[in-house]
Every structure is written in structure tokens, then in C-alpha cells.
Amino acid sequence: MLREAFMSVVNRWRQSKWGRGVIDYWTLHVLFLAILALVGAIALVAINWGSMAFIDALFLAMSSVTVTGLTTFDFATVNPGTTIVCYILMSFGSTIVLSIPPVILRRFLYRQNEDPAKAADGGRRQHRTAMLGGTVSRTFMSFAGSQFSLGLESTVDGGDVGGEHGAGGHHIKSRTEYDAAGMLLSIYLAYIIGVQAMGVILLGAHAAWNLDMRALIVAQGLNPWAWAVFHTSSCFYNVGLSLLPNSLSLLQYDNYVLVISCLLLAVGNCLFPVMLRWIIVALHRYGGLRGRPRRALRFLIRNPRRASIHLFPDKETWFLLLTWVAILFFQVIGLLVFDFHNPNFAALTQLKRVGLFVFQSVSNRTGGFFIMTIDSYSPFMILIVILFMWADSYPLLFTIGKTGAIAPSQGVHRDPPRTWVPTREDEDE
């Protein structure tokens, strides 16, 4: 009986996706986050041995990995080691950073498919490679129920289009999609590093050279530049963790820090697809690139969903931008109507109240920072904040669903990929 039960378990395992060696993207994604949080929790317990319970460490680690920013204690009281661990966890768990591995995988599969030595290996090896490529393209690139085909057999007949000539009129494998993946990877890395570097410079210089700001930071036992590094990443990744007591309440009169924080919160979340497309269009129009790099940029502009889940066509990109502005506008108006005469804000000037509501509207939806404690809000204000937090995700989901319906023409589908054929304009560049 035990033997039959054991064999039943073994058979079920072999029939599962794990037993068949097929792991879908979401399973791998959740597994990565869980392992990362567990390792982070162990590191936090070791750093705070005797002063932090494992459950608190696990909660903080998972909060950092999932960029939610929730804590069971005042985060401003943690030691430098805990700050470093949380910084690493939120960096690896960021949505923007986690968009890089699919692009690397896509580029790797293009390279594997176009390697002449491996293509000539023949027989079973070729079959296994095709099986692997198909499996990966069906599983690792899934997003929100859609499966992204990598288009590994993208070929054209005729002249060389950034690829290699075949003999005797054979098909020529286009390298345009491979180059586009490489270009997109470079843009991702430059964007992540560049935006944060700019934020660190702007905030760090202000914290180090502004006497009032420096005194406030030093009074908390912090280095101005170290604070700038952590705060920039916490804003850009929309984590909401702050090294200052009560989030940013001590900085409610520092308009410079609040404006920079708002910009980092926006370009690191809701406006990331908008900024990504604008960068690609600007490089294509004004970058002065020719040949394969220019063709790669044109491919990203014309086939955005084939390249990345964060890229959308022009109309949908403008839709995201306008809906973000509209949501921000109506939330600020709602807060002004219900809480403009709130006695808790009586010490603030009218202009400062408007600025406060703008910051809270940007931050509450995704970042979690605050400059006024939640108990100072009226019930109507709390209701408005909750409603707009709920509504904030729908423009992106709607855009993904809408572009998913037209994506088969761009190579995003479950069926074998269509051949992408460059236009004469592409060939002439």
C-alpha cells in the first residue's frame, strides 16, 4: 500500500510542469521573490542578532522585495547593515529591474538560434534546442495571461538586412530583433542607473550644502549622501521606506525635496512606459544613428509589444500619460474640496496645502510616503485616497489588454511567429 502511494506521488510529479522540467514565468517569478526574501530575512536576523525576531525580519524582507514598504517598527531606527540589506532587496525586487531578465533571455535565444556552429550540429541537438526555445518562449515570457513568442525564425528573402548572407539564395536570418533586444537592454540599464544617479546628485547636493537640511539629516545620525542614495532608490522603486522618522513629515516645508521625490516616484512607476518610448523615439530622430542601431530603434517603435511588455504604441502611450494626469488632477481636486479647511492643516499656507495634496496624490497611489500622518486626514479624504489607489492600476491593465488584442501582428501570440520583413526604408538606412 505504501509502495502504491509512493508510486502515485511519483507519477503525479512526473505529470506536473515541474516534473516535466517546464516552469512558467510566474512560478519562477514568485519562487525568486520568495527565496530572495528568505535569504534577506536570514541576513537581517544575523545583522540584528538578539534584537530582531525572525518574523519581523521576514516581514521586512518581503516588504522590501515586493516594494510595498510596510514595516512592523520605525524603519528610521534600523542600523546601517539593515539599510544595506533592504536596499539590495528592493533593488532586485523592483518591477523595472525584473523586466531586464526576459530581455536578456530573448537576446540569448536569438544568439543561440543564429549561431552557425550550433545550427550545424544537426539531428537530436537541433531538435532539443528547438524544443527548449519553444518551451522558454511559451513559459518564461508570459505576462498577465499572455504568452510572448520570441520569433526565433524571423527570416527574409533577398539582400542582407543586418544579418548574414546565406548560400544559394537561402533564407537570411534577420538580426534586427536581436539588435533591438540589445538596444532595449542598454536603454533599460541606462535609464535605471541614469535616473537614480541624477536623483542622488540633486538630493545629495541639497542635503550636503543646504544648512537646514544638513542639520536635520545629521541630527538623525545619517550621512547626507548616504541618505540621498537610499531615498532616491526608495522613491524610484516606489518602496516608501524612509530613513527619517514619520516618513517625510520633517521635510514638509522643503519644496525642493518634495518635487524631486514626486518626479522619481512618477518616472519609476506610472510614467515608466511613457519615458521609455520617448527615449527610443528621441534616439531614433535625433541620435544620429545609422545602420543596425537605427533599424533596431525603428523596430522597437513599430513593434513595441514584441520587444517588451513595458512598450506600447504611440496612441496607447499618450493614453497612459493623459490618464495619469487626469487621475492626479481629480484626486487633488477631491482632496482640496474635502480637506482644504481641515484644522490639522491650519498652520500651512494655501499654496503649501495645494503642494501637500499634489505630493500625497502622487505618493499615496504607489509610493507610500507621507508628509502628514494618516490620522490628520478626514474620513472623506481617506476614502478618496483608497478609491484612487484602486483605480490607478486600471489604465495600465487596460492598455496591456488593448494592445494584446492587436499584438498578433507584432509577434505576440500563441501561434508560430509571423516573419518580420523590414521595409525598403529600413533596408536603405
Summarize the structure in words.
By secondary structure, the chain is an all-alpha fold. It has a domain of 72 residues. It is 63% helix and 1% strand. The protein has a two-stranded antiparallel sheet. The longest helix has 34 residues. The radius of gyration is 25 Å and the shape is globular. The N and C termini lie far apart (71 Å). About 16% of the residues have low confidence.
Structural class: mainly alpha
> Helix tally?
19
Distance between the termini: 71 Å
Q: Which sheet architecture does the biggest sheet show?
A: 2 strands, antiparallel
Uncertain stretches of 5 or more adjacent residues = 122-173, 405-419
The dominant shape is globular
Strand content: under 5%
Order of helices and strands: HHHHHHHEEHHHHHHHHHHHH
Total number of strands: 2
Radius of gyration: 25 Å
Strand order of the largest sheet: 1-2
- Helical amount: 55-70%
Average of per-residue pLDDT values: 76
InterPro entries: Cat_transpt, TrkH_K-transport
Organism: Allomyces macrogynus (strain ATCC 38327) (Allomyces javanicus var. macrogynus)
Protein name: TrkH family potassium uptake protein
Keywords: Ion transport, Membrane, Transmembrane, Transmembrane helix, Transport
